[in-house]
Amino acid sequence: MDRINTINRRIAEKITSAVSTMWCAYIFAAIALISLPAALRSGDPLVIVAWIAQTFLQLVLLSIIMVGQQASSDAVAQKINETHEASLGEFELAKEARSLANQELEELKKIAKEIHQVLKDVEKK
């Protein structure tokens, strides 16, 4: 069953990548235009409107919408990657700042220990 799902997914991906191109939209427009003269000869407004809506728009807009969705998806993916890179940069800066803060804290502890020792020595005298 998994093999069938994998095959079906691959076929769907190939068809989607082929249909979601402007070249496919141009081919669909040419195919749709083949039936335009017959629709116009009928003189029936209902046939003409049906040709526009059911033949031309559905066939051609399918590919155009898919191209637009791919462009939008690519833009979102780019923003996600940029945000991820920026986040990693900020994380590295935060790690460096924490490391520096820990070093400074250790130095302050040493200084405080030395001050306490000096105070103890002064009290003894």
Please tag this protein with its features.
125 residues, mainly alpha, 4 helices
Brief overview, please?
Helix content is 94%, strand content 0%.
| Largest beta-sheet details | none
**What is the number of strand segments?**
0
> What integer is the average pLDDT?
92
Give the helix/strand class.
Answer: mainly alpha
Order of helices and strands: HHHH
The shape, in one word, is rod-shaped
Note the gap between the termini: 89 Å
Report the sheet-strand fraction: under 5%
Radius of gyration: 35 Å
Task: Output the number of helix runs.
Answer: 4
Helix content: over 70%
Low-confidence stretches: none
How many distinct domains? 1
Written account of the structure:
With 125 residues, this protein is mainly α. The chain has one domain. Helices cover 94% and strands 0% of the residues. It has helices at 2-19, 22-34, 36-42, 45-124. Helix 3 crosses helix 4 (45-124). The longest helix is centred in the last third of the chain and has 80 residues, at 45-124. 3% of the residues are buried.
